[in-house]
Structures are given as structure tokens and as C-alpha cells.
Amino acid sequence: MANTPYPESYYAASANAVPPRPALQDDVETDVCVIGAGYTGLSSALFLLENGFKVTVLEAAKVGFGASGRNGGQIVNSYSRDIDVIERSVGPQQAQLLGNMAFEGGRIIRERVAKYQIQCDLKDGGVFAALTAKQMGHLESQKRLWERFGHSQLELLDQRRIREVVACEEYVGGMLDMSGGHIHPLNLALGEAAAVESLGGVIYEQSPAVRIERGASPVVHTPQGKVRAKFIIVAGNAYLGNLVPELAAKSMPCGTQVIATEPLGDELARRLLPQDYCVEDCNYLLDYYRLTGDKRLIFGGGVVYGARDPANIEAIIRPKMLKAFPQLKDVKIDYAWTGNFLLTLSRLPQVGRLGDNIYYSQGCSGHGVTYTHLAGKVLAEALRGQAERFDAFADLPHYPFPGGQLLRTPFAAMGAWYYGLRDKLGF
């Protein structure tokens, strides 16, 4: 079987050393078979192992191969749709439960990094940057909303204050979240995988799940082996393919593009982002950026619906970077890559159970770094019989894309064009 390597990226080039992990080549039995060794699968596996379950993880390529190892590396709280939107759709009781969980993912990441001594360049502090007075007004109401759910590490930034944290002339203000922050995302995933193995979990790489035999004792088949389990957790997200058809109809893989500059040196890096916070703007089609441990600027943005790889990523993203930082016009781009995340129509995650023993979480819609870590805990709780928090997510409505898989890409792209126009016109 072909060996699928990491796609070329700054993260793959600067990844910590890891042991070889063989493909599954025989039949094994386990308590829980986790499909996918990204954040959702690794977080689930870790919580289950800490609670005494025997866990086997199947990964089609390599640990963190998908969005977990390619994203912007930003720890951003809440969900892709905020708690007020959830409240309007599901009512106050369910919204209270989901609101209470909205800031938990970042705490879980920090606990994991500390407990398992994961080397992933963790830095505290994330900035939401407003380009218009309307966006600033939204941040003011967002701060009030988040504080209502007990989140207190927030500071509004006026025009003078935001200039102190980011050297960009475009912004009229912003909000600093000190419980936000940034990490080397692939090294976080690799560190979590090592933690899984330290507790007796087994991870098979190059072992795609090709078929699930459902029933009282479900079996997951790979090209060269199979896993018989009491429970299955499906955590493939944008890389699941059509393994579970009923999940594929309700979600759409989307590509996002990222570039990394050459090392900027201490002085220039400090001028751009003096406190080393990460930044995202408040546009619907947002740009995001941060410094790496070796003082490169990582800059991402743009969405390709249907997850095609654009021909020239640098041509798409470099102009966005230079709009924010014209002072980087002579800086070389060392890496450019794309990665897929999974979009849902509601932009809320989809969590649920198929039959009695197949659990899933998918569709972070661009808010995956923190949500996936929470999802792992919530799925593990459900397998232990504590389903209240799981049910709060499972009860969110799931909608199929209009026109099914044929029309979901043009439908979403049309929506993005509309919101992109609104961003440009400042609506």
C-alpha cells in the first residue's frame, strides 16, 4: 500500500521527531476504535485511556495529517457561530450548557501541554482586530456575551492600544483574549499521540478505514486488517470521504491557504507583533496571522469551497499579507500550503450517535483547534454513560446542503461571494 507522507508545509518541516508507526496488518480487539488521528480522535483517545478504556486509533496517513497539522495554529474560543446565535436557535437551557463549554477547549490544550510536557511553542494571547466601527461594536457585544458565561480574560482595545499589539494601520480597534493564544499545531498533535501511546493506546498509521461493519460488535476494516470494538468514534472530519454516507451529505470539505515567511529576525518580528499575540480580523472571510517559534510570520486566509488545491497559494495570500504589513514587501515566502476543514450549513459542529455504538463529531467550520479538544472529552463522557454535555451538542439541528453533494459547492461559494462583498463594502 502507498505510503502517504505529510504535505509540504512549515509545520512538517519543523516537526518534532516521532517513532515509526506501522500499518495495521492483522485482526485486533479493543474497547474503542477511533477513526482518525487528528485532534478529535487523539483527544477522545486520551480521555478514554485516562479512564481505563483500551483504545486503538486508525489513521489513513500520519498523525495530524489533516487540518490538525496544517491549520493557522490559533487557540480561538467559542464556536464558529457564537452563543447568542445558538441561544436563538435552541433556547436558553441548551445554550447555557453549550456556553459553559465554549471556553473549555483552550483549557484542555493547556492542561495537555503541561501534563504531558508537549513541546509546541505555546504562547498566550489572541487578538480580534476590527476594520470598521461596526465590527468594533460587534466586539463590544461579544465581550458582554462571553462575560455572561464567565469568561473574564478579555480587554477591549481602542485604536491606540491595538497599535501597541500589532503594527497594522488598518485596524480601528480590537479585543484581546488572554485565554486565546497559539501553538505549533502539528507538534501539539504529535505530542498528544505520544501521550496516547504512553498510556497504552495503539496508533496505526497508513491504515485507512475502508468499511464499517455495523452491529452489536462493530468491526472496522482496513486494507490489511480489521478492528473489532465495543464502540467506534468517527473522527475523520474533512478527510472522512464517504465512509459514513449519512455524515457526508451534511457537510462540505473546504480548503484554506497558509503561507510562512522566511525568519524575520527578532527586531522586525518584535516591531510587527510586540507581545507575540496571534491576530484574526473580524471579516466573514477573515485573515489570520502569528509568529512562529523561529520568528517567521504565518499568514492565512481565503476559502476554496469543495477543497480543490489552488494552483498558486502565494499569489492568493501574499497580497493579503502585504495589505496588513506593507513593510514585508521584500520578505521571501519559504512555505505555502493548503489544508481542508469541514463546513456545515449551520456552521455549528455535528455530534451524534449511529445505532448504539458508533459516535461521531465533525464540522468545526473553522473553529477546530479548541472545539476538537472539547469534543474528545464530551465523546469520552458519553461512552462512560455521562451524556448530558454530549446531548447538548447532539440536539443541535443538522441540515443537509440544498441540492445535495452536487450543488453544495456552488451554493456555499455564492454565499461566500455575498459575504465577501459585504466585507469589502463595510456592511
Automatic annotation (TrEMBL):
This is Gamma-glutamylputrescine oxidase. Residues 31-381 form the FAD dependent oxidoreductase domain. PANTHER family: GAMMA-GLUTAMYLPUTRESCINE OXIDOREDUCTASE, SARCOSINE DEHYDROGENASE-RELATED. Keywords: Oxidoreductase. GO terms for cellular component: cytoplasm. GO terms for molecular function: oxidoreductase activity. It comes from the Bacteria. InterPro entries: FAD-dep_OxRdtase, FAD/NAD-bd_sf. Its EC number is 1.4.3.-. It holds the Pfam family DAO.
